[in-house]
Each structure stands twice: as structure tokens, then as C-alpha cells.
Amino acid sequence: MNVVTRGFAGRRGPSNPRIPPGQYLETDFPVLSAGPTPGVRTEEWRLDVVDTDGTRRSLSWADLGALPHEDLTTDIHCVTKWSKLDTTWRGVPLEAVLDGDGAVATHVLVHSYGGYTTNLPLEDVTGGRAWVATHYGGKPLTPEHGGPARLLVPHLYFWKSAKWVRGLELLTEDHLGFWEQLGYHALGDPWREQRYVGD
Predict the structure, then answer these.
(1) Quick check: is 180 in a domain?
(2) Which domain holds residue 182?
(3) Looking at residue 35, what is its pLDDT?
């Protein structure tokens, strides 16, 4: 059975240099998930950071709240071919979460409540390129959009911005995540249309 689909047909609107090839402009915020929406209370939420040597740190919601936060406005692009412009977020830069962990790591495997995973090169989530987001549009993230906290990696297709984040596993080699094991691209650069293996 083929589990990889080429996505929705999509609607191509007027040319816009901020919209990658094969994408159309979306003004709503579609909700797409690989499984049921987990209900995670902030009182119970934890984010585990596991270094390459197995060392583990666990951040509580209060720990995350004590880290420096940033407000950002960015465009996002879904593999199902919609793009949404000028989305506003608040979150903690991933460097602040890692706090020096991962000195020899090359990749991170992101774990979510509900069992979802996605893999990313460490260089794509550091250097001001990724956040643990807690707010969207000036309000706390709702569960359907990944609340209480999700990864935000806006320069890659949005399946890489894992909802309901609960763990960051630092690795010295790449390990494919949920969709990547089913045929999605290991990186997912929307400007190169890296939707599926071989793109």
C-alpha cells in the first residue's frame, strides 16, 4: 500500500516572491495532524533534552517560561501546498533550550506527545532558525495547533515544526522520523520542493 500522497491539488494564485514553487496562498490556518490531538496540561508538560552521551535534562513549563522569549513574524509553508504569510509567534529560541548541549551532535530527533517524531539537521534548528513556540497570534497555542508548545522551524515545510513537543534527542547521525520513514523528504526545503524522497 502506498502511504505517500502527492498532497492536495492546490490553487495557484498570483505570483508572489514569498510563496515557494507549487504553493498557494492560504488566509486560514488549516489543521492537519498525523493522529489524535493529545491533551497536555502545562502543569504536567515536560521537555526532555537528551545529549549524545545519554545525559538527560527535563524542563518544566516554569523552566521554559524563565528562558528568554522572542516575538517573530514569519511565513509558513505546508507540504500539502498552502502557504500562510506574516504569521506571528512567541517562543524560546532553541539555543536557549539546548543551553550548550549537543557539542558533538549533527542532528536532532524531535519527539512529541502522541508518539510523533521528526528529524532535523542541528544546523537547521540553531542560529536563530527554530523556536519552542508557546503563542500564536498573540494568544497561547491551542491544542489543535500544537499547544501548549510546538517546535517552529519556518524555513522548512511545516511537518518539521512538530506539534506537542516533549523531547529533543541529540544525535551524531541522522535517524528518520515518522513521515520521513513513510517516504517524505529528510529535510523538507519548500524552496527546493523537497516533499518526498528523491525530490
Answers:
(1) yes
(2) 24-28+46-192
(3) 75
